[in-house]
Amino acid sequence: MSTSIPHIRALSHSDYQEPAFKRQRLEISQEDIATNVENLIAMENLDVTAATPTVSLSELEVSTGLQPADRKMKKKKKRRDPPLPEPCSGADVQYREIRELLGGDVVDSVTEAGNAFLSPFSPTEEVTVTIESMGSGGAGLARAPSEKGPWAVVVPVALPGETVRVKIVKNDRMHSCGQVLEVLVADIETRDESLVRCKYFGSCGGCQYQMLTYEKQLELKRNVIVKAYEIYSSLPESSIPTIESTVQSPLVYNYRTKITPHFNRPPKAVRNDIIPAGEHPSWLQIGFNMANNRSTLDIEECPIATPILNEQYKSERQIITKNILSYQKGVSLMFRDSLDTAFNAKQMMAPPIDKLSEAFTKHVCVSDQNATAREMVGDYLFEYTAGGFFQNNNAILPLMVDFVKELIRSGDDVAPPTHLVDTYCGAGLFAISLSSLFGKVAGIELSKSSIESAERNAELNGIPKSKVSFQAGTASNIFSTVRSFPRDRTVVVIDPPRKGCDDVFLAQLLQFRPATVVYVSCNVHSQAADIGHILKATASEPEGKRYKLERLRGFDLFPQTAHVESVALLKLY
Ligand SMILES: C[S@@+](CC[C@H](N)C(=O)[O-])C[C@H]1O[C@@H](n2cnc3c(N)ncnc32)[C@H](O)[C@@H]1O
């Protein structure tokens, strides 16, 4: 039964036009032609089994316009496959999921035959597939029809069990990406189109889950953590605690406190045009990356961003549109929700603190990357450079900080921790928010401007320098600074960037061996890999020196998207 899916239908026709001046991404380049031909030649010399994608020579000639003579010319040119994706990256996670779907042996044999990039689909081909599983990136995963050979189709906004007609929009290693044209068989139990708030949902790459209830989104995010630990930690099931339910964001729309829309410079062909007042030329795309490819989709407002960001973005779009012909380069904009920095921060924090006053409630939008932004998290005030790192969902931050506090307090009351080491500390969010639990706090962070903010934040919040110190540098350097900290009373908080901790950091952490480690992560896959490494490295140590993973819980910092963050507690036992 075909189901009416308004936003998906809208995507399938010509609402969105690729700007005429842009080279079509799907155009086959000379290099692609060469590769396809070589692969084809390789296939001709192979004992072609069912495991090999089947594209006939004539099909390839039709799709590439290549004639037999060209084949001879290109025969000698060999091109190697691009390297495998960076471990724990989104592409790596997806590749592993594709291997799971198609079978590791099958993928290996296609790869050995040099055909991992030989898509059985011609660009823009339409195909009907049934989604078999949900990828951790929020897209449905399907097998290509069997006559196409072992190949996957990755389909955003399609759910397991659904049958969808898609247009192929991109070919990659062992898979093609499909854009839904029609949902032929819908999972009406799970899909609820009335929940979708954004008219660009499905074509914009920002959100994946608007068609799901929030409860379902949280369940899927928990599954991502379960799977990440199964695959990336290489730990036995018995070493992984029950993963707790994902903590909800108090706001599920209008929560995002930073957005970075962008646009390209105008194409040469229109440089001498005159844009009539109030008109938005069709070639001008100001917005966010599309799902499935990196071209920009023109978007007037983003429902997951805070209202003040949308207000400012809308008026900025008008100014840019008016002046677009004067831009020589593409621009990445930044809008950051902030408390109004016109109020004096020291005065705000001088008792008696009035949290209902304008200084604590008036929000503004900061669009200068170098300007200062300000936010209150619980009882602490934080300032930071607007273009620098600060978490993007302020509504959930107090819950996250409280959970970290709970983990720290959950231990031995007889000898509670006295020292905190905040690694990858940014502007001091954890160091400062947790400072009341400790006698001594040390933080480290690579960005000098974030360290300056952290120092200022300690001062603004009345935390003496004798108690809290910050250091600019790579995280592993902290261990020489905190040599005097008592390891059995020390908590190390780890909150690295997406790629996780490096080997030097992990080696130093293992040598230091603090009683408690709280690992906060924006990439559950690298967190699982790092924690797996820590547990395995200490597994054969004597009692009291082995780490145990005691708690693990997801936090939904980005509702409507597939992204999930997680917090883990490690203890020595
Ligand atoms: C996910 S953020 C966490 C920041 C902070 N904990 C917070 O919640 O606001 C990761 C931080 O690690 C910093 N960083 C990246 N590589 C680093 C390294 N090798 N050593 C120390 N800090 C690093 C980044 O600048 C960024 O501020």
Folded structure, characterized:
There is one protein chain. With 573 residues, the protein is α/β, with parallel strands linked by helices. The chain folds into three domains: 6-191, Beta Barrel (OB fold (Dihydrolipoamide Acetyltransferase, E2P)); 229-251 and 393-572, Vaccinia Virus protein VP39 (Rossmann fold, 3-Layer(aba) Sandwich); 258-378 and 381-385, no CATH class. The protein contains 16 helices and 22 strands. It has helices at residues 6-12, 30-45, 57-64, 68-74, 90-102, 104-112, 214-232, 307-323, 345-349, 358-361, 397-409, 429-433, 448-460, 478-481, 503-512, 524-538, and strands at residues 126-134, 139-143, 152-156, 163-172, 175-185, 244-247, 258-259, 262-263, 287-289, 296-298, 331-332, 335-339, 363-366, 372-377, 380-385, 419-423, 440-445, 468-472, 490-494, 516-521, 547-555, 565-572. The strands form six sheets. Strands 6-21-22-20-19-16-17-18 form an eight-stranded mixed beta sheet, with helices on both faces. Strand 19 (490-494), helix 15 (503-512) and strand 20 (516-521) form a beta-alpha-beta unit. Helix 7 (214-232) packs parallel to helix 16 (524-538). The longest helix has 19 residues, at 214-232. The N and C termini lie far apart (56 Å). S-adenosylmethionine binds at residues 389-391, 424-427, 429-430, 444-447, 450, 474-475, 495-497, 522. It comes from Hypholoma sublateritium (strain FD-334 SS-4). Residues 62-90 are annotated as: Disordered. Keywords: Methyltransferase, S-adenosyl-L-methionine, Transferase. One of its GO terms (molecular function) is tRNA (uracil(54)-C5)-methyltransferase activity, S-adenosyl methionine-dependent. InterPro entries: MeTrfase_TrmA_AS (IPR030390), MeTrfase_TrmA_CS (IPR030391), NA-bd_OB-fold (IPR012340), SAM-dependent_MTases_sf (IPR029063), TRAM_dom (IPR002792), tRNA_(uracil-5-)_MeTrfase (IPR025795), U5_MeTrfase_fam (IPR010280).
